[in-house]
Amino acid sequence: MEARPLAVEGAIEFTPRVFPDARGQFLSPYQEEAFTRAHGSPLFPVAQTNHSVSRQGVVRGVHYTLTPPGTAKYVYCARGSALDIVVDIRVGSPTFGRCDSVLMDQQHHRASYIPVGFGHAFVALEDDTVMSYMLSDSYVPANELALDFLDPALNLPLPSGVEPVLSDRDRAAPTLEEARERGLLPEYDHCLRIEKSRHSGS
């Protein structure tokens, strides 16, 4: 498995080796040894897995978790294709406000690791796109927040020809600056402490 650091500090793209034969393909989207080498910690603590199905053009995000408790994600596209996007919204981070993206499809089978305190979104590029997530903490609706995907300050990539389909909640989400003014964004140092503690198991 190959690992590539993304342009936002702490986020990582993973590309597994694919084994094709007459029956189809076999691959392993998550491998602890590769994760440990790339991230520096011995494990990704899984508290919950999620599964979403989206039609073409659906945008889910930008979502993030109140910190604390904070949640890290490992995301993989099990069917179809999507542009997966990570945004560093940790106040005080050297890459605050920057984003990067990973094209997830059924050719390269890439996955991405999204650290505690990051915003996450994806754009489904075809119908019946299935996204699979591993979460480091259980989902608590009251802790889940969102930012405006179309905020010009974020300048998130939207593939040409895609008319974004967003939920009412995501359409009403605040901009990055509005969330910062309201004290809703995570603090960089706090996120690092949570991430280190959770991965070490302490």
TrEMBL record:
<feature type="site" description="Participates in a stacking interaction with the thymidine ring of dTDP-4-oxo-6-deoxyglucose">
    <location>
        <position position="139"/>
    </location>
</feature>
<dbReference type="GO" id="GO:0008830">
    <property type="term" value="F:dTDP-4-dehydrorhamnose 3,5-epimerase activity"/>
</dbReference>
<dbReference type="InterPro" id="IPR011051">
    <property type="entry name" value="RmlC_Cupin_sf"/>
</dbReference>
<dbReference type="InterPro" id="IPR000888">
    <property type="entry name" value="RmlC-like"/>
</dbReference>
<dbReference type="InterPro" id="IPR014710">
    <property type="entry name" value="RmlC-like_jellyroll"/>
</dbReference>
<dbReference type="GO" id="GO:0000271">
    <property type="term" value="P:polysaccharide biosynthetic process"/>
</dbReference>
<comment type="similarity">
    <text>Belongs to the dTDP-4-dehydrorhamnose 3,5-epimerase family.</text>
</comment>
<dbReference type="GO" id="GO:0019305">
    <property type="term" value="P:dTDP-rhamnose biosynthetic process"/>
</dbReference>
<dbReference type="Pfam" id="PF00908">
    <property type="entry name" value="dTDP_sugar_isom"/>
</dbReference>
<protein>
    <submittedName>
        <fullName>dTDP-4-dehydrorhamnose 3,5-epimerase family protein</fullName>
    </submittedName>
</protein>
<feature type="active site" description="Proton acceptor">
    <location>
        <position position="63"/>
    </location>
</feature>
<feature type="active site" description="Proton donor">
    <location>
        <position position="133"/>
    </location>
</feature>
<dbReference type="GO" id="GO:0005829">
    <property type="term" value="C:cytosol"/>
</dbReference>
<keyword id="KW-0413">Isomerase</keyword>
